[in-house]
Amino acid sequence: MESTNGLVTDAEIKSFFDSAPPLRDRVGNGSARRVVCVTSGGTTVPLEQRCVRYIDNFSSGHRGATSTEGSCQPYCRSLPEDPLLECFEFTNGSNVQGCSSRSPVKTSFYNHFEYLQILQMIAISMRNLGPHAMFYLAAAVSDFYVPWKDMAEHKIQSASGPLDMRLVQAPKMLSVLRKEWAPMAFCISFKLETDSKILLEKADMALKKYKMHMVVANELVTRNEEVIVVTADKKIPVCRDKTQPGSDVENPLIELLVEKHSAHIKDADT
Ligand code: PAZ
């Protein structure tokens, strides 16, 4: 069984892993470490390969920032947009250091291509966490984009007359996430509409079509006040506690999701 040429054999690899103690904090029980991938903010659609112009959307990234308070840059969303603050960077603990180059405190945003590439990379790397992984997909990802091969390389010239450009429909990656990238993970997507009459129907459709565990439905104007969590058998309204100044809707929302994620892990373990 031992290799003679210094290379490790398949049998040696198998024997090593078979005899190793279970990995702590990772596998096999409900208290194992959970990891949540949160996407937030808008994505841009570039119009030129050497991008000068792009299509943007309204999303401020507030949802994701508020939902991840307790992270390494907590409460940054509450800071004023002051260029002076951009001169500081955060280190471990509560130290704040001056930094030589200006680095924005706000999360950077990605274009449509980068967003999906990075999501794929993260999802595949989280696959081993099984049901302990959660995807909280609050980013406003464009439904339309210009394929790279159809895009002008250089800055589009206004001298060429009116701009006539075809945007194609973006492939829906949520089903691929569920089926291939991280099939055991707990997946929550968001659905935004401006027309309240179609919101719940669209959220329901997304739940079924992409096999999400939950879809958080929200309307543009009230998105910071209330959301409705759509599951296979319930529609659960979640509201900001208006009696508490400074309260937000993300707090009760996250409490609900933690509870549902625990149930998901328990189901998968039994
Ligand atoms: O980023 P933000 O806090 O301004 O807004 C949050 C949101 C409306 C982008 C998010 O809650 C959401 O619904 N995201 C999915 C949007 C969509 O339907 O593509």
UniProtKB/TrEMBL annotation:
Swiss-Prot/TrEMBL GO biological process terms: coenzyme A biosynthetic process
Segments forming domain DNA/pantothenate metabolism flavoprotein C-terminal: 120-224
Matching InterPro entries: CoaB-like_sf (IPR035929), DNA/pantothenate-metab_flavo_C (IPR007085)
Pfam families listed in its UniProt record: DFP
A single GO molecular function term of this UniProt record: catalytic activity
Family designation: Belongs to the PPC synthetase family.
PANTHER family (UniProt xref): CORNICHON-RELATED
Protein name listed in UniProt: DNA/pantothenate metabolism flavoprotein C-terminal domain-containing protein
Organism: Hevea brasiliensis (Para rubber tree)
Taxonomic lineage of the native organism: Eukaryota, Viridiplantae, Streptophyta, Embryophyta, Tracheophyta
